Amino acid sequence: MGMKILLSNDDGFDALGIRKLREILKKNNHDVFIVAPDKNQSATSHSLTLTVPLRIRQMNKNEWMTTGTPTDCVLIATHGLIKQKMDLVISGINHGPNMGEDVLYSGTVAAAMEGVMMGIPSVAFSLASFSTLDFSGAEEVVIKLLRIVSEIKYRRMLLNVNIPNVSGSKVKGYKFTRLGSRVYTDTLITKKDPRGKKYYWIGGEKPSFKIKNGTDFQAIERNYVSITPISVDITDYKALSNLSRRRY
Questions:
Q1: CATH number for the domain including 88?
Q2: Which residues does residue 32 pair with via DSSP β-bridges, in sequence order?
Q3: Checking DSSP bridges between strand 31-37 and strand 63-66, what pairing results, if any?
Q4: Residue 164 domain boundaries
Q5: What is the pTM of this model?
Q6: Is the preceding peptide bond at 34 cis, omega within 30 degrees of 0?
Q7: For the segment 151-183, what is each residue's pLDDT rounded down to a tens digit?
Q8: pLDDT tens readout for residues 68-104
């Protein structure tokens, strides 16, 4: 029996990744519902739209496009837009990796995290490439992850999944990983408009990463699917323990 699955993303309603995900899930007899942004919302993190009205437009049966962020989309869906109770929230498939500290910026991961906060197991899928996208290995990965989710049966579970950008036959397997660490080279680019006023771009080179044992970066580097469990609770328990011993 298929699951009721809510899809969202940060690349937008018409993005190739979410269309591919819809195709895979419907092919495997799941009931698919889509609530996704009307434009690219990359790096919006877990932001909510609170100062302007949200617009919702139904595009097809069980498919809606909104003017909101990925977090808005999941909140809207679970707070009344969709009457059925979802078994799973899936975000993605993102056009680009979400590994290491980048998960803190990611709208893809934020949509999945909102699902967990609503008490629904959630998975964020990303294809680890900044250029040409090869979704040929995605179907097997998605079906495998659905099996893992159904076996664990943990409603507060959030899995961040990065898929190597290679053909399905070249995917070596699956690794449960921890988040790695990104090497930041971001810069602030200053320019002037035709009227002589300054404007700014946040730019820099493509990100690089520290390849350490057991990390998501190492798994992707070796053509393994990286599966990282992520907690909504970001408390630093080691620091909390140390601070609690101090007297003030």
A1: 3.40.1210.10
A2: 5
A3: parallel
A4: 4-181+209-244
A5: 0.90
A6: no
A7: 887 778 899 999 998 887 889 999 999 999 887
A8: 999 999 999 999 999 999 999 999 899 999 999 999 9
